[in-house]
Amino acid sequence: MSVDRNSPLEIDPEDFRRLGHDLVDRVATLLAALRQTPVSRAATPSEVRAVLPPDPVPEEGSDPDALLAEASRLLFEYSTFNAHPRFFGYISGAPAPIGVLADFLASAINANVSGWTRSPMASEIERQTIRWIAQLLGYPDDCGGLLVSGGNTANVVGMLAARRAMAGPGVRTGGLTSGETIGLVLYASEETHVWIRKAADMCGFGTDAIHWIATDDRQRMDVAALERRIAEDRAAGLRPFLVVATAGTVGTGAIDPVADIAAVCHRENLWLHIDAAYGGPAAMLDDAPADLKAIVHADSIAIDPHKWLYAPLEAGGILVRDADALREAFRYRPTYYDYPDDTGNDQRTNFFEWGPQNSRGFRALKVWLALRHAGRSGYRRMIADDIAAARALYEAAVAEPEIEAFACNLSIATFRFVPDALKQKAGETETARYLNELNAAIVRRIQADGNVFISNAVVNDTYLLRACIVNFRTAIPDVEAVLPEVLRIGREFTQKR
Description:
Layout: H1 13-32, H2 45-50, H3 64-77, H4 97-109, H5 120-137, E1 144-148, H6 151-167, H7 171-174, E2 184-189, H8 195-202, E3 210-213, H9 223-235, E4 239-246, H10 258-268, E5 271-275, H11 290-293, E6 300-303, H12 305-308, E7 316-320, H13 323-330, H14 364-399, E8 403-409, E9 412-417, H15 429-449, E10 455-459, E11 462-468, H16 476-479, H17 482-496
Parallel strand pairs: 2-3, 2-4, 4-5, 5-6
Antiparallel strand pairs: 1-7, 6-7, 8-9, 9-11, 10-11
């Protein structure tokens, strides 16, 4: 190797500056043209694979100008744009432009936010970001917490903290085979996100340890049913330890009766974990539902900044009221780790002791900068606007004869297309099946056409169209475009029947 190493991955600073400027120009052009761009494009997996370079991995390198131009073209032509003002499909927030730039800056620094000495400023920014998120929710800002990939991981971390705190220290050595851990059971409503099955599996409980609690006609946990099941399980010799409540279900945005569930957990000495990955940020609104504000009573809260705080993916978060409970779930001290200064007021936060990762990217910067860019008042206004847009769509659905409106919670509106000729027969088995198939076909066609993008929910075996608005670009004309698409496609399909 020569004295002056010539690496094939190095780029001359002037070339890097030019490439960066060109890429920013392309992205800025894309963002400026989003409203005139299809939300999605109809393409099959084979069609997308066909435009990629051929296998195997190239033997020789290529010019970065051409590579960035090609990558931009491929992504611009074959992506579903959740930044688009008419994307209402899933709970993916539109990425704040300052967050896009923050990810660029974070990648350049390449901080490994695991130990404080490896990432002093990044560690402090993440710690402050956790405090600020807690403050937005009204949660104690001396809580433990960290940023993770998303809601699934955040909720798993919350469950692991609950397991360690409620099962005792023996769970770390004996697992779930020791006497103090046998018979542990947890409770969740039937509307809980699928993460809970993954978590029960990964944490060693098994999915049979989840005792499902029925919901009321608003898809909220039945608290009386919860209390009965806890009593039955204790009488059977089982060990209840955790209740999971949801603040904004994926399907309809329903909020469990958190205040009443918290009272049950307090009486029964159970850990209360709240999946507020979607709905949590709306707790900062003055007129937020009381049960949403009641998430402050939780022992742990999962919240996703990449949903309603408009951070680019990935940015999930977990808050745990007792910071020591979080650390005790993950703290190990091998000789090759840096340890925090546990004395005095100048304590260091080493995030490898707070969660499952050692190598950790700098996720916090995009959240931290966006919170400073918009401020609390800006977020209140944007979230309130999203809720108002969903309400406007729901009210339009109520007024449309061939649309059956179902529910509107937070910023999710659900409804379905029901032709006039089938309204009187909608409850019959054959008609109900046909309406489910019809509305599923409408969703597929809408997503393929790309004029707007919606998804679905299934409630009591009824297939519903679903629009979720977590997009600071969405305006009333954008939601007004939804029902005409539904009606046009629905009428086309029924005419062919």
